[in-house]
Specification:
Helix content is 50%, strand content 17%. It is built from ten helices and five strands; from the N terminus they run E-H-H-E-E-H-H-H-E-H-H-H-E-H-H. It has helices at residues 10-14, 18-27, 42-48, 50-56, 58-68, 85-93, 106-110, 115-120, 135-145, 148-154, and strands spanning 2-8, 31-35, 38-39, 72-80, 129-131.
């Protein structure tokens, strides 16, 4: 079995899209191995976005914290018998910019924001869902959002 990490972001929760997103993941042949529900904290956000914060700086950190802090997120481990699961999940999720994501993807069908608008307004792009970009990121991000005991069940 192979695993990938996804997280429904605050806009997915606020817009009532959580059931639709889970339905789309399952329709694509994925199983939900583990799901959590928690309020994001600045520490969790700094850990999760450590690389982009290092790359893009303090403005990115402030925007990420403003978007996530105190908001409900749903971190999940999804699984399937696919060695290419991480890239497959990213294909299902769609491009980071919802305005450029293909129709039929989660962001392409459900997203209402754009990177252009978010840059102009100096805020995070609301793009429904996060999906890990590598097997290493899956393990690292799961360790941020889940307990060591939970992670030990899968990795």
């Amino acid at each position: 079995m192979y695993y990938s990490f996804v997280m429904m972001k605050p806009d997915a929760v606020r817009l009532g899209l959580t059931e639709e997103v889970v339905s789309r993941l399952k329709a694509a042949g994925l199983s939900i191995a583990h799901v959590g529900c928690c309020k994001a904290t600045p520490a969790l956000i700094r850990a999760h976005y450590a690389e982009p914060i290092e790359k893009y700086g303090e403005n990115f950190r402030r925007n990420a914290e403003a978007y996530f802090d105190g908001q409900i997120v749903l971190p999940m481990l999804v699984c399937a018998e696919r060695a290419d699961l991480v890239s497959y999940v990213r294909q299902i999720v769609g491009a980071t910019d919802p305005s450029k994501a293909e129709k039929g993807t989660i962001r392409g069908d459900l997203g209402v924001d754009s990177l252009e608008a978010s840059k102009q307004e100096n805020r995070m792009c609301e793009n429904i869902i996060h999906a890990s970009d590598s097997d290493e990121a899956v393990r690292a991000e799961a360790a941020i959002w889940f307990s060591p005991e939970t992670c030990a069940l899968y990795f």
